[in-house]
Amino acid sequence: MSDFTLPEDKAGRLERCSVFYTDVVPHNHALGLKLVDIGPAEATVELPYADFLVGNPETGVLAGGAVTTLIDASCGSAVFLKMGRFAPLVTLDLRIDYLRPARPGISLISVAECYRLTRQVAFVRALVHQGDKSNPVASAQGTFMSTEG
Amino acid sequence: MSDTKPNPLPLADLVRQVRKTREYRKLTDAIPYTRYLGIGVEDVAGEMLCRMTYTPKLIGNSMLPALHGGTLGALLESAAVFELLLQTETERVPKIISLTVDFLRSGKAQDTFAKALITRQGRRVANVRVEAWQEDRTRPITSAHALFLLAEP
Fold first, then answer.
1. B34, A24: Cβ pair inside 8 Å?
2. What is the ipTM for the molecules in this complex?
């Protein structure tokens, strides 16, 4: 497969990106991450609640690390969508603010937007919520770089 | 209470026990996510280190292959949490406030180590720096700075 360009239409783009999650990124697949919606430079990714993701056995609250993975994955997808193709991508840095504890038993949804793409560096921000965007769980900002060329 | 529910131990009791016995696996296995990722605490020449044992499910880019950035973030955060639980008086899982991760090199398909350093511990907030490396400790693959909220004593 030498063509890494994403299709023009939304349904085609969503499908290609979803296949990428399951086929190319084993850890996204292992955690059960699902790409649920896309925009021109936005990716919405869902992390279903699961017992093996719990970080505090006394409260059932998910581990921060699982949230980190969700954010990293959604931000990377937003960069692919902004670029219009898949390219080898590395995360340079990621900053996450945990605004409130996630409620146990409910999916986490990360909405990531690549708001600036230069020739080498992509700037992304993300907001994580549990169905109500006005009451977010976490906010994040990251930078990514394509390693090709 | 603990008479009627002998197993599992309440986490605070388990933390106190593990501080004495150094059977770290009991604590890291009590947290489902660290057990899932294969993160453990080890005594290496008298120093407490974290190890994330490599398994294929940790891969984020199967073409390189490289570890998923999220798993490295998780290792750094877990190392900070275990450092706080085992080296301070904290008996509840500290709540993370913020995490800033620098990804310095890609993580290879092999075991990864992490060491946390508590740079400040107040009554309510702890600042922690963490580094992760693979075969060469002087060439870290990720570093992080994290803030935690500690439960009131």
1. no
2. 0.93
